[in-house]
Amino acid sequence: MTTVLLSLGSNLQPQQHLHAAVAALRQRFGTIIVSPAYRTAAVGFDGPAFLNNAVAIETELPLDALDAWLHALEDAHGRDRSGPRFSDRTLDIDVVFYGDLIVEGPGHLRIPRPELKHAFVIKPLADIAPDFIDPVSGLSLAALWRAHAQRDEVFEVVALVPADGGHDQRS
Fold this sequence. Notes:
The radius of gyration is 15 Å and the shape is globular. By secondary structure, it is α+β, with helices and mostly antiparallel strands. 33% of the residues are buried. 27% of the residues lie in helices and 20% in strands. The chain is built from four helices and six strands; from the N terminus they run βαβββαβααβ. Strands 1, 2, 3, 4, 5 and 6 form a six-stranded antiparallel β-sheet that branches.
């Protein structure tokens, strides 16, 4: 089994889309660890604020199969890939870490994800896996967060809700 750390984000009906994504991940992978969801400003474009969180899973799926499954989950939630790279998202799920694997070079998949530099990625990851070691820097996620320029900022925590607007305490 490989420990995989995912970054999730949405700025279109984000509470519902992230809740549904967490439920789908739990159904597919069983026990998962879920960070709080934080509200953050859009990066790279002018748009509604995002909710971002992180999920840790254990899987036997190879990286390419996992990535395809996650893309299908995004698509099932109305992900539009036709627009600019930085744009509104119903659901965005990135594999930030796949064990200690490092993937660079051609193609869209890079592990660890370059977005790791953003507070909206590193903070939720450090919340759920503080002792996880970044294979590039050799530092723990807790150490990377402590060194981050935004570490002293307060981030608004937002509860995730099912699509019907009810409350599900499991997420």
